[in-house]
Design goal:
This protein is an alpha+beta fold. The chain has a single domain (2-112), classed as Nuclear Transport Factor 2, Chain: A (Roll), CATH 3.10.450.50. Helix content is 27%, strand content 50%. Residues 12-105 form the SnoaL-like domain.
Amino acid sequence: MKNTTTLINANEHVKKGDYEAYLSYLTEDTKWVFIGERTLLGKEAVRQYIKEFYLAPPIFDMEQAIEEGDFVTATGNISLKNKNGEYDHYTYCDIWRFDNGKLAELKAFVIEKKE
């Protein structure tokens, strides 16, 4: 469960809005694929994404994590503050690949909750 623990620790920084500490958990060449939306290549692209979309620290909970080798699949809920100051709510399934204990690749399935 070493990689799951790393993911949980990294996410604690996001919850606190300490994004630079979070970024230290990523490989320099990290790759994030948001299925059907966009792909981010490299730590700097993730930094810019955070600046654009995390207008306030996101509120999220990881419901389940399954670790197998260098991969952790995590499911849960996340709420992001929008430009109107209201929160949009999503359900996610993230598949993380780790490389030497760092977050190297993300494949994210994110679905907005409409209710």
